[in-house]
Amino acid sequence: MAPLLVTILAIFSAQQLLTPVLAPLARELALTETQLGLMITISAATLTAASPMWGRAMRRIRLRTVLVSGLGLAGAGLIGFAVAVTLGLNEVLPPPVTFALMIATRGVLFGLGLAALPVAALTVAGLVTTREADRTRVTGLVGAAQGLSLVVGPAGGGALAVASLLLPLYVSPVICVLLTVWVLVAVRREPTRAPQRVEGPRPRLWDARLWPLFAIGFCVFLSLGLVQVVLGFLIADRLHVDSQATAGGVGLALAVAGIVIVGVQGVLVPALGWRALRLIRVGAPIAVAAFGLLAVAHNLWLITVAFGLLGVGLGLAMPGVTAAPSLLVGSEEQSSISGLVNAVIGSTFVAGPLLSTALYEIAPVAPVLAALAAAATAVALAWFSPAARHAKTAAEAVAAP
């Protein structure tokens, strides 16, 4: 599992290296905020669509092949993105052509490759563990690796941008290439692989055993997406500060949330050893409380505390929602389940930005209240849906020899 965790951390850090420079580069290229948002949305939509396909691929080909294929596509996308932006800044390409190439490379190609990595990690987590506590621990570590990238990537990108706005664009594909070489070496004799061609129906999103758990996961991740995108607007409008102070406030709140999520998923969840459903039932109400605090917070200190509390709630709930569906199926279905879980998570990064910005135009507090409602829905499903109430029995039946 260690090579996969390193791979997840490195590739998502490479992605997040670009975060600090996307907005200023868009301005330099004469692109609008809407165009930049469209590129990110298309990337998330591509990841959502590609995840089930990678899950099916894991049933037929080796883990090492999936990892290298995903990294190759992601690396090609990052290289193409760097070339397109460089040519656009040098006025070799007109803005419309530059934007189209950015969509094709950073949006489609990179999203297609990136989808393979978490699917592979979650599949292996399902195959190498049988006890529920072990599976939630491993999925928590996968989540912690992704969470740590949200801290490491932007910090590294910001430091590189001091020298040049283009430097993060050049470093990201280099990381991808080096990571591909490392995977070829480190995963060469990896014994874990998904089962070969398996007959029988594949799990579906609407499967009666699974859809309430997927709905819980969608609500949990959607709640984060609803407030993450509009945080800058909230800070600027509530605190009446300039753009520089707004950026600093956003960075502080998100850094606190990211660090707390990493600590909870990487340390607390393995130490607790709780079942997946218990993690959700404890974590989601904490998230509800955090959104309630955020709805009334009118200074940076309270906003930061709210995001720290949100980090605790989501840090507990996220490993539960990623592990729970895998506990209801056998080993032959783990890769398909991993693809569906990743698709559900990816879909929230499509819906979240669009919904939150629309709600903010209606009322600034509306996205926060919508996030609270989403987290509350997750709580209700975790306690009262038949699938959740019978999750413990089903998981024990799957784990039994």
UniProtKB/TrEMBL annotation:
Pfam families (UniProt xref): MFS_1 (PF07690)
A GO term, aspect molecular function: transmembrane transporter activity
Primary subcellular site in the record, as a coarse category: membrane
A single GO cellular-component term on record: plasma membrane
Signal peptide range in chain numbering: none
Keyword field: Membrane, Transmembrane, Transmembrane helix
Membrane topology: Multi-pass membrane protein
InterPro entries reported for this sequence: MFS (IPR011701), MFS_dom (IPR020846), MFS_trans_sf (IPR036259), Tet-R_TetA/multi-R_MdtG-like (IPR001958)
Residue ranges occupied by any Major facilitator superfamily (MFS) profile domain in the UniProt entry: 1-389
Subcellular localization, as worded in the UniProt entry: Cell membrane
Stored Gene3D superfamilies: MFS general substrate transporter like domains
Membrane-spanning parts: 66-89, 109-129, 141-163, 169-187, 208-235, 247-272, 279-297, 303-328, 340-359, 365-384
Domain of life: Bacteria
Keyword Transmembrane: yes
Protein name: MFS transporter
Lineage: Bacteria, Bacillati, Actinomycetota, Actinomycetes, Streptosporangiales
